[in-house]
Specification:
Blueprint (H helix, E strand, L loop, with lengths): L19 H15 L9 H12 L4 H13 L2 H15 L6 H18 L1 H14 L8 H9 L2 H8 L3 H8 L13 E2 L4 H5 L2 H7 L20 H6 L8 H4 L13 E2 H4 L11 H10 L11 H7 L5 H5 L26 E2 L2 H7 L10 E4 L2 E7 L8 E3 L4 E5 L6 E5 L2 E5 L9 H11 L4 E6 L16 E18 L6 E11 L35 E3 L6 E3 L33 H4 L37 E2 L6 E2 L6 E3 L6 E3 L22 E3 L6 E10 L2 E9 L6 E5 L3 E2 L3 H17 L8 E6 L11 E2 L5 H18 L7 E7 L4 E5 L9 E8 L2 E7 L14 E5 L4 E5 L1 H6 E7 L3 E7 L3 H5 L9 E2 L1
Parallel strand pairs: 5-10, 24-25
Antiparallel strand pairs: 1-2, 3-11, 4-5, 6-7, 7-12, 8-9, 10-11, 11-12, 13-14, 15-16, 17-18, 19-30, 20-21, 21-22, 21-23, 22-31, 24-26, 26-33, 27-32, 27-34, 28-31, 28-33, 29-30, 29-32
Bound molecules: 2-oxoglutaric acid.
2-oxoglutaric acid binds next to strand 26, strand 28, strand 32 and strand 33.
Amino acid sequence: MNTPRDWTDFSALDPNSNSVIATYFEVARALREESRPSRGGRKPWLTSLAANILGNDEAHNIAVAWLKSAFTASDKDLKKAQQFSQRLCSPRRLDKDSVAIFVDAWWIFSENQGGTLVADFLNKKRRERGFVDDLNFIKQIGGQLQDSANAEAVNGQSPAKRSHARDPGPETSLPKKTKVVNQPSKRQKRTSGKRKRFLQPDNISSTGGSVTNALVRPSRADIKLEGAEPGPLPVTTNAASEGASIQQRPHVLSDLRPHLPQPFSVGPLRQMASVLDTHEEVPPMPNWIMDDIDIEQTGDPNAASASIPDNALPTTGQSAPKPCLQIKPPLWAVSRQEVCESFDWFRSYQGGVYHANGFAKGYLLSAFAASRDIFHHGGQVIISHGGGKWESQHMTRGQVETHLADDQLAQDKSVRALIANYNNKRPLVLLIDDKYALFPFNLSASGITYAVLGFYFISGYWAEYQKASNERGRVVRYKFAFQWCSNQGIPWWLHPNASTTPSTHIDQGSIILYQHVKQERMCPRCQTHSPSVYTQWMCLKPDCSAFWINQHGKSPAEDCLTYDDEFLKLAPEPPCPYRSVDLIPHRPQPRPTDGITTDYVYTRGWRCPSCNRLACRSKWEQWECPSCGWSLPVQGRTRKASELRGIKMDVGFYDHAITNGSGIKQGPSVSYMSNGGQGHYQAFELPQQRGRIVIIHGCLPFGNVDADHIFEEYQKHASSVRGTMLTHYFSQNAGAPYQYVGGADNTIPFENAPVVSKARDLIQARLRQALNIQIEFNEVLSCAYMCKQKMAFHSDAEKGLGPIVAGLSLGAPALMHFRPCSRFEPDVNKRGTILSLILRHGDILLMDGSEVQQFYEHTVVPANFRIAATARLISPENAMDGSAKRAIKLEA
Ligand SMILES: O=C(O)CCC(=O)C(=O)O
């Protein structure tokens, strides 16, 4: 086989070879050539890549990435290829995305190489996976390369229909906004050196008879830049060399747009996906799909709507099972905690609407779809109720209470925020969970619980009555119509890679006409306007006496309302200030120059760059994806107590404040001796002999040396001693199981945590020295608070806890407040703080007496990075009783 000097020249390869891998060897050799010093300096990674490809069966995926970059000539693809190459050269294993690239590249490759090689390869793969029948890929691939008239023979469809899907044909048949590239773009003109060569027509030539086409795919960036009229691509002008039969056609946007599904015609990419379906390793969407969404202005909303049944209905009961997603959404998660800790657009642990500063930022579509909620135009128009006030059950003092559904009001926080978005034309982010019945794919089958759809603006809102099981039999619900912000390109779930299931085709021609102003009518009774949402107009203002009354003077029957077609058309869009990239969580610098990785941002989760999962930062030492194991080490320095302990507390007292009328008796400041020096303590007696709170200050001048060491050691060993993360808050339990942290499963023995033992020893020594209390604690909960984290009010009233709880404070100072428990003072306004203390580095806080926990609760608010080790004596029955739960809340 000849070695092509220019590895974009695939025509020089042996077209009869039945081993496609050989092609990659050629690519690899060319890559090696590229890495020669004479070509602009030795690139070691390229050299080792070449070596890898030659010696590693899997490595040809990388070559494919290069192939892709050659054909798209886009900087982005080039960068991807480099990234993947670098990854391969590192000891990490090849990730799944490379497989997806492989698929994608095959598609491109097939368009250039004709059918034989691709068909052989695909069928070989099929046979390896147990298929007995070979598919006629050649025909399909050939079909793609034919013009639309010839294509009819391939799948029996009318040329007109096919051409709509694959090749828009002459200019007149293109949707208005479609742009056509026929000139080298500014970007192309600017490109020099190796990249430039990819674009040169001379590189595409044909010497072998089986080469049926040679196309250079313009980059997506070029498509965006260029607005030229259709015409022959310059690259094709010289392509028909040496007698090869090369067909030329203008490149139009739809070529780069994902293939639209056709009932009986499946492009090679889809074929490939279905072939791979049979294999466990379903290729995920390449990572750059998110980037594609950013840059790809299809200008053709038809493309977006074609793959999903219009106005998909909930799949309940007998309905057909939903197809599985073949891709990973650009942002997805398994738990709500992951979403809230990683995704700034939705940080609501409970409600369905996340709002901040009076505006909704995120909206979760979940179960409880109200009547007439819809997912229309493939999800580009979604109508949903405003959330909140459904029938719910609450636990109040041990009793389950059912709260009946109630009317939503325009003043309700969530509704008000959504209306503010509408009035200010401010987009928000829609998310779905696996209980949202209207999404046409089965999320849970892919292990996905939450997925981010993207930015939407609110194109309308109104109120209506909804059936409910309350005494009136109905409630007022605010409904919101959300419309996809089209600057994001095609919604990801409409990408043809998303599903292997061809689905209903919707009328593509009409969508452009959908841009229209929503009709409204004035209510003769209240003189305000309501949109014409349904075929029968009604006043949709709940304050009006004519609310929800039709022209017959009646409330419409629940099931006989039909949306007005006009209303469902896409509304004119306000400008969207966000791009898809704004959805991606910011990742803090893993190696900050000052070495400080204890700031709040380091508590946030991340989006795994490999599989797009939103994941918590559950490990001290790194962000790690629980799905694919991808990790990003956090390389900070150990912080010294000296840099934190001096932080001033902005409060009006030096060490403590007792609220007037609390009944607390303050004891004198008493000194005590320890090996390192002298310390002092102060006790606060609670009223009615409910116990005492004592603060034992660290010893000066040298007594805090122990605490200094422990603080540093905690940080050094955090990765090895940490247990399972509870929230975005590093905590770990040692010794006896503590139900609050999940019992035995999340507890490690003291032997495995020497630093925790040291903390326990120091606490015990101080109790002995200062208060003459001899105690051997059998449990220590260690918590690391990053900057801005705090522990909300709670009490340590778990069954089996001994009466003495003592905690060592390390690092930054913290404020600790005590207040009466709700049980004794249900009115939260009367439950003010009775005692506040400043806990400083080396201090030990003792809560002495079980009633301290029964009658009071406490909160801790550190001023910056702080570690606390709280020691308890837990009886064995507590270890056995898995039901006990402490009502503790960790907050940031
Ligand atoms: O951070 C602290 O010092 C207190 C921790 C605490 O309240 C607890 O573990 O229950």
